[in-house]
Amino acid sequence: MFEKLKAHGQEHLVRFWDELSETQHTALAEQIERIDFPQIAHLFAERDQANEVVELVDRAGEPAAMRLGDQKNRFSPESACRRGAEALAGGRVAVLLVAGGQGTRLGFEHPKGMFPIGPVSRCPIFQIHLEKVVATARRYGASVPVYLMVSPATERETRRFFAENANFGLPETDLRVFCQGTMPAIDDRTGKILLAERGQIALSPDGHGGALAALQASGALAELAERGIEQVFYFQVDNPLVEVCSPEFLGYHLLARSELTSQVIAKQDPKDRVGNVVEVDGRLRVIEYSDLPDSVAERRRADGSLQIWAGSIAVHVFELAFLLRMSGRADALPFHVAHKRVPFLDEQGRAHQPEKPNAYKFEQFIFDLLPAAANALVVEVDPKTHFAPLKNAPGAADDTPESVRAQIVALHADWLRRAGAEVADGTPVEISPLFALDAEQLRERIAPGTRISQPIYFRP
Ligand code: UTP
User: Fold this and answer.
1) Distance of CA 387 to the CA centre of its chain
2) With contact defined as beta carbons under 8 Å apart, do 230 and 259 qualify?
3) What confidence tens digit (pLDDT) does each residue in 134-151 have?
4) Which of 43, 82, 365, 456 is 20–30 Å from 151 (CA)?
């Protein structure tokens, strides 16, 4: 092992070897074993080019899209709903929920899915997502298996939390938890891998794109195929408003014979901080807001609307066949480089908490599969009803627990009013997905004229 480390200029990783216990030796040796040193050297050498998209940006145009409420759309919402419902009733749809992130900005000391987001119930985000799956499976009379991706940062607590909560009603046979890989952080000046502790490399999850490799390595991909799954509904743990397994969204994907379909929202401002879905040379791809020059972001059509309009909200449907095909390709997903503050041990073994970025971290993004997908398509949704990301700590400017709760309340108050209830302005209301999955179902369960002026949580 020492020779290998030396050959790659990384022998400092075992500097404190003699001070470690046998268990620590084994753990450190395992971490070292898993590192692809030539890959790390390559990523460091290419760090300035890694996020380079300049020549693509010039050719960026509008993606194939289903626009919200547009009469000229290729397919009607009704035909899409029918088609999506068929796939669900046939048991051909699975859920891929990614929850391996470290949630650093939120500053919550547990996995983000455990955050008590319910505006009235204070139920955790996981419960909202899982109840949607359970309710969907009931509605269509077929199971909807959940593949939950965790990381070494979230695995232990997440598994325990699911066990303590009886998987939030999901049958054990319909839940598969699998762990994503990690990547080491490297010193931004020297390219040397950082030590977090004497026997511990500074590792972090390898991005939500790590799902592709982890699905394969864990055997989950093969299992999905054996179960007869054809479509995989992907979403991220931090958005409690996701319409999990939306039949309409699934339906557009199926009608268009798309291999990868993504939900987007119409950007309000040219520089909105979302990934931009664009078409380049007949293929869809995402260009991050940080890579989009102002001149391109501000391009407008004749009617004044933005040309680069589609902001990704990280909800996708994948054809399983597409995932199987891409998982066999070593270069399926590039690594993105991020300059971050990473705590580390120096040569003398002193711990540092840097004040400014000192290291590079490497992550894969799942949306980088878009250019390889046939007939890829975007579907526009309303951000008010579909997108409430929990990113930041209470008190921050946006994407906070307060803003997310307010959006849940606004949506559920709207459903109640559409069902004929009178909801006093500003009253916190919340509806469990097991009580009603949508406004139509709620209408069957609420007596018209019901008056609500106290906080209330509807659940069966
Ligand atoms: P973000 O990139 O927003 O990261 O992840 P995060 O962990 O939520 O928060 P910060 O940036 O540390 O503050 C978006 C989604 O992708 C998942 C997260 O769990 C979240 O659902 N994710 C991210 C993973 O599953 N694995 C990763 O390696 C990174």
Assistant:
1) 12
2) no
3) 999 999 999 999 999 999
4) 43
Name the E strands within 13-110.
65-66, 93-98
Torsion (CA) 160, 165, 166, 172 in degrees, nearest 10:
-50
Residue-wise pLDDT for 35-49, tens only, equals: 999 999 999 998 877
Which pTM does this prediction carry?
0.96
- Two structure tokens written together for 301: 């059509």
On the 0-12 / 13-18 / 19+ scale of CB atoms within 10 A, 204 is buried
Per-residue pLDDT tens over the stretch 290-314: 888 898 899 999 999 999 999 999 9
Cα-to-centroid distance, 141 and ligand 1 (Å):
32
Per-residue pLDDT band at 188 (split at 50, 70, 90): very high
- CA 291 / ligand 1 centre spacing (Å): 20
Q: What does DSSP say about strands 344-345 and 351-352: parallel, antiparallel, or unpaired?
A: antiparallel
Mutate-to-test residue for ligand 1 from 129, 149, 236, 335, highest number of ligand atoms within 8 A of CB: 236
Residue 368 clears pLDDT 70, i.e. is over it? yes
205 alpha carbon to ligand 1 midpoint, in Å? 9
| Pocket (CB within 6 angstroms of ligand 1) | 98-105, 112, 149, 151, 180, 205-208, 210, 236-238, 391
Domains, the chain, with CATH or none: 34-387 (3.90.550.10), 392-460 (no CATH)
Residue nearest ligand 1's atom 15 by CA: 236
